[in-house]
Design a protein that fits this description.
Largest sheet: 8 strands, mixed
Strand content: 15-25%
Radius of gyration: 39 Å
Oligomer: single chain
Shape: flat
Number of domains: 3
Low-confidence stretches: 1-7, 18-23, 203-213, 228-234, 344-351
Number of helices: 9
Mean pLDDT: 78
């Protein structure tokens, strides 16, 4: 691979940017791309190929230039990511270089063609076979954690040389992961066997609904379950009673919150209505005076008083509406919990409750 000097590369890249159409990028974008490319070239010459790939990728995202892609492909090659390198080289070779493009662009394309021929033979091939996939749902095959398209199963696919982990799983099934190591240009194959996954949901056998009591006789198939001995656990009646008491307590709390909210909301709604009435009276008084003192261009004390009363009325009304809503929700919740705590399962299925809110009232509507 021909090593490009940093100063020469930056000069060619600068000329290349200058030859691009002015409307393609802003001056700030071109300056930022040059700065990134300069750092990327320095990183490449220093052997920091991961940094080099990142910097040239950023520069290319700002301003397209074949030299960006060339150094990006070279960085991938140095990192052993030959598949990505080949795709980047191909992108350069297929680009239509304009007749008036700078020589740096044509040089990059020529270098990409030569380097592509050197990279392609080094790419390894891996064939993956899956046993037990015929009746499997949602099959997913991964290579190094990346899902591959199902159409590639059973077909040699290009991979980078090195170590690879191959996995396969489906609904309720999983295969033992396989590991393969491939050299440059080597062909390899792995076969994975899908087996029932014990850790999958529903795979484990169902546990007994009632735990056996130490010393008690074993249950007889088909016989009714024996009553739970005293002292060995809470009875269903006791559990239901505990839940009923909890809902009653919750209903009392909800009634309290709902009552406070309804009272506070009503008070503030009445206060807002009073303030609004005072504002209307004050506005009528100052608008009929000669000259009127409620115009926008005359911030008189009378107009200021009207504005203050309007503001106080709006705040009080807002608080009142919020209180009414909280009160309605609290009362609805309280009634619902109270009904559920005192009703059997049959009555719970038919119980229904809807809060009814109005500007001057709050109530509940439903059937039990």
């Amino acid at each position: 691979m021909k090593k490009v000097g940093l100063s020469r590369y930056v000069l060619l890249l600068s000329l290349g940017f200058a030859a691009r159409p002015a409307h393609a990028q802003t001056d700030e974008q071109r300056a930022a791309a040059r700065a990134l490319a300069t750092e990327g070239a320095a990183a490449f010459n220093d052997g920091r190929f991961k940094d080099s790939a990142d910097l040239f990728s950023r520069a290319e995202s700002l301003v397209h230039a074949p030299p960006h892609l060339l150094f990006l492909a070279r960085s991938y090659t140095k990192l052993g990511q030959l598949v990505r390198a080949r795709e980047t080289y191909i992108k350069i070779t297929k680009e239509q270089i304009a007749p008036g493009a700078p020589a740096a662009f044509r040089d990059a394309q020529s270098a990409a063609q030569d380097e592509l021929r050197a990279v392609e033979p080094r790419i390894a091939k891996l064939t993956i076979q899956i046993n037990g996939s015929q009746d499997s749902k949602d099959l997913a095959v991964k290579v190094d954690g990346n899902v591959i398209p199902p159409v590639l199963i059973g077909i040699p696919q290009p991979v980078d040389p090195g170590d690879h982990k191959v996995e396969a799983l489906a609904t309720g099934k999983r295969a033992q992961p396989q590991f393969v190591s491939l050299k440059d240009g080597e062909r390899g194959a792995v076969t994975l066997d899908l087996q029932p996954d014990p850790s999958a949901v529903g795979a484990a056998p169902a546990a007994s609904a009632v735990a056996p009591v130490p010393g008690a006789p074993a249950p007889v198939p088909g016989a009714s379950p024996a009553p739970t001995p005293a002292g060995t656990g809470a009875s269903p009646a006791a559990s239901g009673s505990s839940g009923s008491n909890g809902m009653k307590i919750g209903s009392y709390v909800a009634f309290g919150v709902g009552g406070v909210g309804a009272i506070v909301g009503t008070v503030f709604l009445l206060k807002g209505a009073s303030k609004r009435s005072q504002a209307d009276d004050a506005f009528a008084a100052c608008s009929t005076s000669l000259p009127p003192t409620c115009t926008q261009s005359d911030p008189s004390p009378a107009k200021t008083r009207v504005d203050n009363l309007d503001s106080e009325a709006a705040k009080a009304s807002s608080i009142g509406v919020t209180g009414i809503i909280i009160g309605g929700v609290g009362l609805a919740t309280g009634v619902t919990l109270l009904v559920l705590s005192s009703s059997g399962s049959s009555s719970r299925e038919t119980a229904g409750l809807v809060p009814v809110l109005g500007p001057r009232y709050v109530g509940l509507s439903g059937s039990f």
